[in-house]
Queue: 2 jobs
Job 1
Amino acid sequence: MKRIAIIGGGIAGLSAAYELALQQQAGAPIEFMLFEATSRLGGIVETVHRDGFVIECGPDSWVTKKPWARDLAIELGLGSELVPSNDSRRKTYIAAAHALTAMPEGMRMMVPTQWASVLNSQLFSWQAKLAYLREPKLAETLKATALSDDDSARDESVRDFVVRHFGEEVANTIAAPLLAGVFGGDIATLSADAVLPAFVALEREYGSLILGLQQRMRAGNASAPVFTTLRRGLASLIEAMESLLPESSLQRGVVVESIEQSGKGWRVRGTSLVGESHLIEQSFDGVLVATPAAGTAKLLQPFDSRIGELLPQYSSSAIVVALGFTAEEARAMRIPRGFGFLVPQRKSLGGKVLPSKRDVRDEASETTAQRALLACTFLDQKFPHRAPDGAVLLRAFLGGPAAPKLLQHDDATLIRLARTQLERFLGRLPESSIALVRRWPNSLPLYSVGHLDRMAELDRRLAQLPNLRLIGNAYRGVGLPDLIHSGRTAARELAANVTTA
Ligand SMILES: Cc1cc2nc3c(=O)[nH]c(=O)nc-3n(C[C@H](O)[C@H](O)[C@H](O)COP(=O)(O)OP(=O)(O)OC[C@H]3O[C@@H](n4cnc5c(N)ncnc54)[C@H](O)[C@@H]3O)c2cc1C
């Protein structure tokens, strides 16, 4: 019998456990144990149901074009629960000058697909519009630059990549706040190869991102919704997988403190926090480590200290504040039509939405904490079934440099801060029946320039450690589809290749 340990019960570890359970049911000689430090599986994936609101505390959806989350949902019998985003309402605003300015229609991140909407947009100065018009004409030069470097050695920051195509203003106004929301980092540090692989590939093929995207859209399925979620929330995925795992294969409330090689196998040691706290020690033939980057570095430090250096060195923290307003409470609210808004650094805006005197005055008097609002999602508009009829569900993301300090604040302070920040752009908010806070410390690893090269070196070093795999959001993607895919694949490979001690 092959015995496999999985450390960490977030979406990556749980997908791996589910895959092993399938193999077990199919008669493979496998036993596995999933160790999760907390009493709940799912990690950052958590849904709260309250008074008819479906409140996502972590991710709210996945990108539809990556198939693995959808495939898993269908496999788990959740096909009828799949819900596409309300793309007819898809509009994202950029917050500036105490107002929300819509991003032009048809943008794919910072790349336009409709000229008229870019040229008529209030968001950009004429210099930025000229930069957009010029980009297709630079196709040959951009292609030559993209291809002339030695592939394995080249990487650049997202900022440099975007600036080469569209200039500083577009980088600051759109790319910076969009990617801060997903990767929690500064675009001057983020790796273009790791964070924008599709655009890097487009550049290699077409030079111009605008021309490349036009080609791809002609060939692709333009009608697919951009995001997909589940009617009763993303935790349904977690619950469905959990219900298929044998209870004897789950150890919740166990913090794994060390792993140690013993022959070809591994010894796992930890502390169980269930009841009277006690030590546990168990032997396995293979181990899947699915903990966040810092924890993984600590577990692997004793036998390869270089691995810790190859993992992302910094992970940003996020705080989610969800506010649910009943139809009665929401009656006087005037939330614009759309999916939500992003808050860039004010100094970066360049169009007709230049900071007003009031902005400049406010900026001088604000503390960093007061500038912590990164984005807000209008969840009741982004997806159906998120709130009762007429109700409003807002989700504010706080983070950035103030995050470590904000994490120390109590819920009431964070709710007050989020409300004050939201009111700058949405007008006075009534009291909300529902106010919920979630803190996700060090949750989004920063893929800095050179990340993919470091991942390649990591793979080479891991090949020296038999029967050990690393999965989770520190490596090749932070989104749910990638994590489900890599978790399941690693589990399948380990189960096939592990040799019993
Ligand atoms: C606010 C927010 C919004 C997001 N929105 C989206 C979105 O809309 N769409 C999307 O696709 N992605 C989104 N993401 C990213 C995505 O949610 C995460 O990348 C993903 O959930 C991480 O999964 P994971 O399994 O790698 O790690 P985690 O979810 O962090 O799970 C790791 C688990 O390991 C456990 N653990 C840690 N140490 C130990 C130990 N020593 N012993 C035992 N157990 C341990 C932890 O308790 C945890 O349960 C968002 C992330 C955040 C923070």
Job 2
Amino acid sequence: MKIKLLKNKHRLLVFIKQIKDYIFPIYCLDCNKEGDWLCEDCYKKLDLSGRFFCPVCHSPTEYGECCANCLEQSFLDKEIAILKYSEQEIIGKIIYNLKYNYAEDLEDLIKKIIIEFCQKNSSLFTEATEIVLVPLHKKRYAERGFNQAEIIAESLAEILSLPINKNLKRIRYTKQQAKLNKKERAENINEAFALLGKNISSTIILVDDVFTTGSTMQACAKVLKEKGVKKVIGFTLARG
Ligand SMILES: [Zn+2]
Ligand SMILES: [Zn+2]
């Protein structure tokens, strides 16, 4: 009986997807072929080998750890990114559509990318016991309806079987970082976050969509360290 119900539910979901695809066809973000956000051929073009650089000076390090010269200026202990960010490349189009076209159903593609990366790099996250995501201000969350960092964090949490702690909040409404230079970004984001509650793990993974200068991630890591977190591992889908 249960199997029959599940089969019917599956048929219904397939049927709903067929109708949705008919009314709102999806085209590959790279080659425009109809069917998926990224067709199989274009997916194969993604380099998922990972981007491992010091979060401060951007010099290459083995697992994205902070280099010895920058240790004192960094609240992030590591920064692990999957793809090289470029506005014109596939990853730029994925993030643009996620942020500005409300394409929440890109989630499946993002999860596929994270699964493949984690299978090849499973040892990178073994010490972490909790996931924290870079929050949006509630006003921006209301405009957009979802937080792109949350979509990435949820996929990672499922793959690594780790809980998500959502107590990090954005307490100040800030200008969008993309339009600012490095110095302006650091000033803009300073004192923008706060961690509510007392319970937080000692080693956490901090998740965002893109790592550019690192000022947002550093501001979040600073708050976490002030509340007793010992190690913060940054994780982003892409890094500029
Ligand atoms: Zn394609
Ligand atoms: Zn460095």
